[in-house]
Here is the input.
Amino acid sequence: MIKLFIFDLDGVITSTSIEHFSAWKEIIKDRFNIYINDSIEEKTKGVSRMQSLNRILESYDLEYIISDNEKVRLATLKNELYKSMISNFDETNIYPGVIKLFEYLKKKNILIALGSASKNGPSIIDGLGIRNYFDYIVDPTDLMSKPHPDIFNKAMNHFNLSPSECVGIEDAISGVTSIKSAKMYAIGIGNQEQLNHADIVFKSIAEIDNKFLENLIEGDHE
Ligand code: B16
Ligand code: MG
Here is the structure.
């Protein structure tokens, strides 16, 4: 029996994964005059701000040419730009089907947690006006980034549950790996081929139907 759903934020509840990467593109272009290739985006998903920067720098053999202080400066600039890009986010930026899914889970007395690597998570949730749906928000500070299972385990342990009572929802390859490493049921949102390690993949949250949810919640998932 499922008792807890753990949601990723960026790319699952709202589009902020797009703004995260757009902000990195602009910062790297300004500093190095390099246009980051779109193929690098996946490497930056689900990992901390500094890890995202390091992965971008590594992709262009730039990681050793700048100091740690310069990295901190770039990460800070990126976060300021990112926050300005999403400053007007409100309920209209919630992806279709998200509120319907939250309402369904609440009606079934299923707990809802946020399992995001983003330190901006709580303020985004406030901006979207959906804080009241969350029973718990994982603080990613001091936790290992996805694909490590830390973030999902933290939510599970908060409620003293076992993996078979938890479901994780993710749009990133590293995020789905994180859920599976925590031995939970993984719902992938996005591309079936990319997320084929999930237990099931939907193109978007809006495609998740009640019949599926009923079977999932009542079923026994190891
Ligand atoms: P911040 P998620 C992750 O969020 C993003 O996918 C990733 O691109 C970002 O670097 C990370 O949050 C940290 O975000 O800079 O806001 O602390 O996908 O786990 O919701
Ligand atoms: Mg995500």
In short: The pocket of 1,6-di-O-phosphono-beta-D-glucopyranose (ligand 1) is lined by residues 8-10, 17, 20, 44-49, 52, 79, 116-120, 172 (CB under 6 Å).
